[in-house]
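Q: My labmate handed me this sequence with no annotations at all. I'd like to see what the chain might look like in three dimensions before we decide whether it's worth expressing. Could you predict it?
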Amino acid sequence: MILLALETSTRRISAALWQDGGVLERGADSVTGGSALLLPWIDELLAEAGIPRTRLDGVAFGAGPGSFTGLRLACGVAQGLAFGLDMPALGVTTLEALALASHEPRVFACMDARMNEVYTAAYEVAGREVREVEPPRVAPPELVRPPAGEGWVGCGDGYASYPARLPPLARFRPEAFPTAAAVAELAAPRLARGEGVDAALAMPLYVRDKVALTTAERLARGGIR
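A: Here is what I predict for the chain of 225 residues:
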């Protein structure tokens, strides 16, 4: 199995090439969305591995939730590659990729959703296996409640943006981000099981449909963030 993976849902963007368990990756912080970096990275990874695009078995992407612009970028590039090369595409939940990338066994994933909200989900991780405990959702930080039980580690930039407004946990990893390598690790067995879809059916997972608030809504949530 050889696949490309793309993750551009946060400011930490990356691309990875997965080949039978081995991973090559490129990544960087980008405040401009990363559109100028993604395609050159793909060419670099394929050249480094000595693999032509025609040998790819599929393409995976961080489907969200996350930055609306970033999600559309990764999905659009994945769709273009999948359509042009007649191969399947597969979206992986961004919060699930964050959980795997954190290397923690019990992860309460929390990403800044802007608009005074965060995206959250909970996962248990064992090796390369990730089990969803709570599905992705969006809410103001004050309304967030972590799962019951001990050992949960808060991971993601939600804890950097709203440290005083989120519920306390024993430990936090605000520096943790989803990665293309984690997307690839999750996608590879799913593509092998035939779970990929036609390029036209590959879609982002927004979780929140509304991209802007009215002035009254912003004030009610404590500001204009």
